[in-house]
Structures are given as C-alpha cells and as structure tokens.
Amino acid sequence: AALALDNGLARTPPMGWLHWERFLCATDCAAEPRRCVSEQLFVEMADRMAAEGWRDAGYEFICIDDCWMAPTRDRQGRLQADPKRFPGGIRKLADYVHSKGLKLGIYSDVGSKTCAGFPGSYNHYDLDAQTFASWGVDLLKFDGCNSESLELLAEGYRRMSVALNKTGRSIVYSCEWPFYLRPVQQPNYTEIKQYCNHWRNFYDVYDSWSSIKSILDWTALHQDTIVKIAGPGGWNDPDMALVIGNFGLSWDQSVTQMAMWAIMAAPLFMSNDLRHISPEAKWLLQNKEVIAINQDPLGKQGYQLSKDKNFQLWERPLSDRAYAVAVLNQQEIGGPQKFTFSLTFLGNGLACNPACSIRQVLPASRDCGVYSWISSLSVEVNPTGTVLLKV
C-alpha cells in the first residue's frame, strides 16, 4: 500500500509535545494564565524544548490540540485562532516555533464541530488544508467527533489526506479514524495506512496506571490485526500522550509507559509541563537508548510473546539482528518479583543463536553479559514496573 499517499513523512514514529491531557481545554487566561491554551503556552514550551535538550533528543513537534479556535470562521470561511488567546495568529506562532528548530502541529476535526464544540472541517477540507499550509503547519491531528455517518467519516479522512498532499507542503497526518470505526466495524488498516501517517486505536490516555494498563491490554488483545500494518510511513497510535512527569504515575509506572511505547513503535508525544518537570522524569523521557529503540529504522512494531500470571514478555525486532525485550509485572501488590525465561523464546529462536549479548536499558542501564542460545535469563521487576532489555 502507498504510505499516506506517498507523502514520504513519518519514516520513524513522530516525537513531540502535545497540550492535550495536561492542559485540556483551559480557555480562561485571566483565571489560569499559566495553564490557558494560548500563544504564550506554546512559546514557553518551544523555548524549553529548544533550550533543555528535548529537541536534541528527537522531540521536534510542538502540537496544538482542541480549543485553539475562535467560535466561528472568518468572513472568507477560514478557520481562525481565538484572537485574545492567540493575538499574533498561528502563522506568527509557527514562525517562532520554526525559529527554534521545531515544527508546529495543529488540530481539527472531520465532522461539523470539534469534540469541544469549535468549528470542524466538514465541507471545508480543501480550504482548511490550504489554510494550515499557508500558516506553515507541519502536522495535523484530525479528530473524528460529530460526523453524521461512518461513510462521511471515511470520506472526510480520505479527502483531507488528498487535500494536504495537494498543498505541496509536508504535513504529517495524524488520524483518529479506526478509533471511531471500532465500535461498529473492523477498521481496514491497509486503507487507513494509505491515507494516514499514524492512527489512534483506543481511548484517550489519562494520567493514571489504569489507563496505561488498559491500553497495553487492548494492544496485546488486537496485536494479530494491528502489528503487521505498522512500519515506516504509518504507525499505530495507542494514544500518543506520554503522561510521564505529571501526577498519576509512580516511577515504575512511568518506566513502564516509556518502555512499552518504545516496544510498540508508538508516536512519542509528551503531555506535561516542561516548565516544571523533575530531573528523573526528564532523564527517562530523554533516555537515548529507549528513544533509539522507538526510532529503530527497521520500523517493526513489537508484540506480546507470552503471558504468565502477572508477567508479560514482549519483544520487538530491531535492525542489525537485534531485539528489544520488555518484561512487565502487572501485579499491584507486594514487592519485586523474579521472572525467568528461556532465550530460545526470542526471535523465533534466532535472537540468541548461537549466542547474544544482553544489555538492560530500563529502569537503569547496565551490561548483563553474553549468553548462549540455551540459556535462561532471570530479571527482577517491581510491581507495575518493566525491565527493558536490548538483545
């Protein structure tokens, strides 16, 4: 299949920062000036991304989500930013973001209104694509609320993909298409990959362990359908927001989200406050070894190999005959537990044949040594934690 109509983008999973989850739809800048979805918020995040190592670690997009718009289109029928919260307009903001060596993402909806009730793109696909391109936008997150039928939903996603390509500007296309189809019918992922660069499959991620756990459970349950379609140019999005550095996850749960999003070849879009982030969360999110796994050029998505009581064993094929391996302990009571597995399990028996070196990447990096094909490996994993290995 063609990849997003051959726009040549997203050869590895996109990385960046997204306002949704942490900042939601806060629009009262007088009451909440530091949390308001505004020009100031994105300028301050862009400054942090450029100055504090985020851009250099690979996080290149800074993305506006819902609630950026004025309540109505302008006299020419074009979308417009809320004039009080974005006094310079989106073009000025894009120029600023670009001056920091970053790219700007924006949000719209396939239906008549966005999920928060702002103007949607229905019947305006070409105009909106041209508007975004004229502003210098580099990514579009296209939601699926308020579409009257599945036929109109599918037509809208296709039409916006064609419209974005017609602008001549390179714009990554992030779709919510399969998420809105799934309650009614099985998505056609071959078609979706033809039009989209990545696509969301499951509910919004929340700042909670139960949300992370439910995403991992859903992914494992549906892996036979979704894993094979992922690859350079098109990626499964388990909901891209990394909520590391917020309030709801313990340290071990944060390690689990980072490790498993790398295993799943997921887009890595943080949703946190980069102005107030702990050194530990920063270390985890900027970890070069984990990001290298996520960004591996082979572009194969990982999958669950086995499940044994509370333990899950996942692997992801990497380039140069390497594998990423994750051992996840879903137990939520007690202390650290040991899990032992045979290395002959990995890579259909090829990963360690006749021998392999193993390095632990998370929760701390260390060399584990060289193992033979018939060896077993034991790891100790904290409750709700993950040990990430490179074989």
UniProtKB/TrEMBL annotation:
UniProt keyword annotations, A-Z: Disulfide bond, Glycoprotein, Glycosidase, Hydrolase, Lipid metabolism, Lysosome, Signal
Protein location: Lysosome
Enzyme class: hydrolase
Gene Ontology annotations of biological process type: glycoside catabolic process; glycosphingolipid catabolic process; oligosaccharide metabolic process
Catalytic reactions on record: a globoside Gb3Cer + H2O = a beta-D-galactosyl-(1->4)-beta-D-glucosyl-(1<->1)-ceramide + D-galactose; Hydrolysis of terminal, non-reducing alpha-D-galactose residues in alpha-D-galactosides, including galactose oligosaccharides, galactomannans and galactolipids; a globoside Gb3Cer (d18:1(4E)) + H2O = a beta-D-Gal-(1->4)-beta-D-Glc-(1<->1)-Cer(d18:1(4E)) + D-galactose
The enzyme's E.C. designation: 3.2.1.-
Single annotated GO MF: alpha-galactosidase activity
One Pfam family named in its UniProt record: Melibiase_2_C
GO cellular component: extracellular region; lysosome; membrane
Domain Alpha galactosidase A C-terminal per the UniProt entry, residue ranges: 299-385
PANTHER family cross-referenced by the UniProt entry: ALPHA-GALACTOSIDASE A, ALPHA-GALACTOSIDASE/ALPHA-N-ACETYLGALACTOSAMINIDASE
Annotated function: Catalyzes the hydrolysis of glycosphingolipids and participates in their degradation in the lysosome.
Assembly with partners or alone: Homodimer.
Family: Belongs to the glycosyl hydrolase 27 family.
Name recorded for this polypeptide: Alpha-galactosidase
Species this protein is from: Rhodinocichla rosea
